[in-house]
Predict the structure.
Amino acid sequence: MRTAVVVGGGLGGLAVSGALARSGWQVTVLERADRIRPERAAVVLWPNGVRALRALGLGAGLDAIATTLPDGGVRRPDGHWLVQPRPTPRERVPMVVHREDLHDALIAGLGERVELRTGVTVRTVRVAAGVRPAVGDGRHTYEADLVVAADGVDSVIRRQLAPSSEVVSSGCAAWRAVIPWYRAPSLTDPVGGEILGAGYRFVSASLGERGSSGASSRGGVYWMATAAGAARPEPPQTQLALLRRWFAGWPAPVDELLAATEPADLVQREIRELRPLPRAFGFPVGPGGVVLLGDAAHAMPPHLGQGACLAFEDAATLAALLRESTLPDAVVAYDRARRPRAAAVVRQTRRMSAVLRTRGRLALRARDAALGTITPRLLGTAATIAAQWHPPTPPDPSRRS
């Protein structure tokens, strides 16, 4: 029986663990936290992410918890439309799902071949010729045929295998929250859309329909706000007061959503990214190998909503290649498949990041004058890149000699 050690119990780590286990692997998941738990937020799944989850065998569970996300357009803080809402082809319509619901679906799909070990902080990785790869926490060594580094932007494994790839600030911070419907009684359902200001951005989306849990067992309204600058060190109460001041007077539903938000709802994160991307996402080691997955491989700003989607793509691609090839060959093929794909998405994300960080009166006037043209083209290109990914196609057995 082939064995794998997955470092990190986030969405990507759980997705690949379940996929490997369903293919007959024995998997050990190492999580440094004392328990595996999701953020109190939501995840936008673009078509590529949806396809990846279906390829991982999680389609039925996804249909039960996800809500389609109609195009809500893009506005300025004065309410002027930069991009009018427009019909979206079915194959490009994204979905939104509560992160806790998605986490529960991934946990349910693990099966008996996955062992979860919490409170384990991986500090070293062994990549020596002739022996299987391994990781260690200073007390124990965990050896396997395959090591999957799904330990996020601060990945210890990536720092040792690809030291030239550094974690840098993206120049902004993000706040997320999910608000129950009952706290925002006057909101018009569905809620959705994007508003761009001088270094600020606010995005909202409905999780299910008002009056019921809808498609999600945790219904409500999800919102995300970004602001230029570093993460705030103040307590959540002060952070919420700052958000209400920064976004005061913005078009609906911003005021009502922030008024309905409680300090305990806030999830703040400094936005960081990898520059440059690692020189490789896969490292053959003896009879096995090590691969980087998710933010450990390609952390980027959230402006195109592709972080989780790319992690699920990684998981689906790796699982498919491991079914088709010997282990060292699959590791090499994974690197060849995933690095160009991630680089293309990162380029589009950085272009959008440059647009969103625009500040200063003259720069804003130039941006707003051009944004009606730039944003549809940029978003269209990004949507095309997202929509064009499909899981690897298994070989046709009838063509084998």
Residues 396-401 have pLDDT under 50 and may be disordered.
